[in-house]
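Q: I'm writing up a methods section and want to include an example of the input and output format. Could you take the sequence below and give the corresponding predicted structure tokens, formatted cleanly so I can copy it straight into the document?
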Amino acid sequence: MNLTTSLIIEGNDHNGFPDLIHWRGNFYLAFRVAKNHIDPHSTIKIYASSDTQSWIPLAELRLDDQDIRDPKFAVIGDQLFLYALRTRSKTLDAMPYTTIFCTSRDGAIWTPWQGISPANWVFWRPKTNDGTRWYVAADDRKRKRSALFTSLDGINWDKVSSIHSGEFHAEIELAFLANQDLLCTIRVEGTEGRPRTLLGHAGHPYRAWHLASNHLTRLDGAVSFIYRGQVFSVGRFEPNPLFKMGHYLNQKRTALFCSNAHNLVWLADLPSSGDTGYAAVVTLGDTAFVAYYTSAPDTNYPWLVGQFRPTQIRLARIHLPDLARLTAQT
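A: Here is the clean output for your methods example:
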């Protein structure tokens, strides 16, 4: 498979949880910067590039010296939206508890942070299949439930359906099929049982979800995209785990998968190690641009060690016809 990677951001900070979008001819990158993975004080930085080769800083966004993470872009109307999660980081388990957003007309000047409606839901990645109506999957971690929401303005969201409940789960990534059906992947923590990924399917208008369990990995920080009708996902993978899936002493990778409503298949690892994952994807023609964060790929830290060491933002370029051929061989 034709895959190349380049380094975008490095240094002495923990740089993580990136998102990437292509808007008005430029790439925009948002990512969290802090001392470590669970630092209660963080900044969201935004960079731009016309060619993914050179990047210029545009903005630094903070919130009352608190931790905000998992930025997610969306272009709604003629504005660039940025969603992020307010987080309590007093233990190793950073715990987002609500979603905030701001907007920009140029990627450089941003409005103050505002809360979404309804509050106390943790959004993942908003998506649209028509450019007008938006959908997002969100979880309520206190009540161990998740739901699908929809909006026309990106600010006020209405509940469409319940997705899952009864166990701790999060980071629900959506993918639209050509027939308007929705697929999703769900990270299941495993505090009430075995860690795993749930694969969900709902037909339009998305009132009922059918879920299947997959034990290949716990797909943390997933992003999904579609090429030639096939759903691909990028998320965390644990090669040869020594402990229970998701354990802090296991080694992690950022990996490519193909998926459907019933199965998740590993395809390849990206250069990654230690604390890694939480990718974002832009597809242009036959190329996928994948932004992700990682400890230095030539190390092999356990996940816990990587959380307290510097991490970098990398960009992978994947030739999608090669990826499709690789999928056909699995």
